[in-house]
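Tutorial, part two.
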Amino acid sequence: SSMGAVSSSSDANSSMGAVSSSSEKDSANTSSSSAAEEEETVHHLRDFAHLEETTSLSSIARSNQSRYLTVSAKAKPDQNATLLSRELSPQIEAYNNTLPGGYSVEVTGSTSQISDMLIQMVEMALLGLLFIYMIMVAQFQSLLSPFIVLFTIPLAFTGGMLALVFAGQQLSMLSMIGFVVLMGTVVNNGIVFVDYANQLRIGGLERHDALVATGKTRMRPILMTALTTILSLFQLIFGTGMASQLGNGMALVIAGGLLYATLMTLYIVPVIYDIFFRRKPLMIDVGDDIDDAPDDAAEYLAGLKKKSGETD
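Running the prediction step on this input gives:
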């Protein structure tokens, strides 16, 4: 009986093992079949989207979180981009009125850069003019003498513009820098003239005689000072190298302005001085080691009077 029981138990275990192995085979077959179904299922892009071949932007540019497109053009060598932009501005404004909301057209590039640069140069020139005047006030200890010297600056600007016109060049950034440099250079001639005339009047000469003596005795120093600067710029004006071509406009402005202002200083500054500076200038303490210029001028005028007396 015990062996039968064992046998029955053994048969039961065998049947349970058969059931267990059978269920494992069914689950394996089920998983393999579902994996096969997933592998056989193919999803196409056309099932989810519509395909259309077309052209698009290669890049998207934004400024202040707004998209923009750039249409560029180059002016001819004999045309001025600034003048062309001024002619196009009314047409662009009229075209902007026809565009839908959110769209606009504006001129940028070199034109806007030149406008910004022009504003900066004007501000720089005004600041430089103020500094030049303050330095000359401290030098002359007068408010009127520097004012007379400042009349040489418009003459220099006129000469610089004439030089650009004769050379057929346009106003560029470097040429505008030349105008700023010219402001600090051209006043030297006026300073030499006015300062010497003041010293002669302090020495006892009349206003008209002091101006005549200053024009005679200070002409050579003024011309020498101006010519040394003008001749040094000839390499930039007539050179053919890359550096000469870049600095040609600036050199033309400085050389032309100095030449014109130097010649006109000998005529305009004495006239302005005679009109505005009628009172005798104040004595300025310049130290003990400086020569007495009025004595030299007095001797020069005495020689002129002596020659005129002998002629009579």
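The first strand starts at residue 61 and ends at 63. In part three we will examine how such features are distributed along the chain.
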